[in-house]
Amino acid sequence: MPVDLSMRVAKVSRRMVLRGAMALLSIGQILRPLWARALTARTGTSQSRPPEGVETAIVSCSVNGEHHHLMMDTRTTLLDLLREQLALTGTHKGCDHGQCGACTVLVNGQRVLSCLSLAAMHEGDSITTIEGLAAADGTLHPVQATFIDHDGFQCGYCTSGQICSAVGMLRELAAGNPSYVTADLSAHAEAVTEELHERMSGNLCRCSAYVGISAALSELAQRKVPA
């Protein structure tokens, strides 16, 4: 008896696909240490002697709660350090010019464009990437879960930067930090749509999933979700 594959495909919802993608990300977090060790063994990244004439620095910092003592070329960006030495490839390289926001991470709780920040500047800093937002048991961060609920992405390439930026933005909003569109600088900024859009304007989505992103941000701001 022939099987109607179209009926089976129709039962697979977008949300099921997105949750499956997040599950794969959690698996990636488990495999990341093995991948990082293999990458270091293959390329000699963190401990190998640099080429002659290259100026290096040794930086100690915390990344997603893990302490690292790293040797690097002083020209290395934070983005390249995360991706190439620590195998944290959830942070994406988009424009590499600080214009798209895809590489946004959190440094000491504040959002930073990692493609414009030299890794050697982060001695003693605490850095959080998209891989470090979920709880140790795999429970998603509220911002991650809300983005899924509102279909706040399509291809997903900008999403790690969008989510990290949203976490930092909510902290700024809760602290009362004004933005360019805040009307009264002496009052606490309200989480209105115009404020949220201005504060996230540095994160671009080429798929134009802004409707879902905006809905997710509005819900998070209304719920005053701790970031």
Question: What is the topology, as strand order, of the major beta sheet?
Answer: 2-1-5-3-4
Low-pLDDT ranges: 39-47
What is the correct CATH architecture of the largest domain? Answer: Roll
By CATH, the topology of the largest domain is Ubiquitin-like (UB roll)
Helix content: 25-40%
Cα-atom Rg, whole angstroms? 19 Å
In the CATH hierarchy, what is the class of the largest domain?
Alpha Beta
Overall average pLDDT: 85
Shape: globular
Please give the domain count: 2
What amount of the residues lies in strands? 5-15%
Sheet with the most strands, sense and barrel status = 5 strands, mixed
Would you give an account of this structure?
This protein has helices at residues 5-10, 14-43, 78-85, 142-149, 159-174, 193-199, 210-223, and strands spanning 56-63, 66-73, 104-107, 110-113, 126-128. It is an alpha+beta fold and 227 residues long. It has two domains: 15-45 and 55-132, Beta-grasp domain (Ubiquitin-like (UB roll)), CATH 3.10.20.30; 142-223, [2Fe-2S]-binding domain (DNA polymerase, domain 1, Orthogonal Bundle), CATH 1.10.150.120. A five-stranded mixed beta sheet has the order 2-1-5-3-4, with helices on one face. Strand 1 and strand 2 (66-73) form a beta hairpin. Helix 4 crosses helix 7 (210-223). The longest helix has 30 residues, at 14-43. Residues 39-47 have low confidence and may be disordered. It holds the Pfam family Fer2. Residues 57-133 form the 2Fe-2S ferredoxin-type domain. Keywords: Iron, Metal-binding, Oxidoreductase.
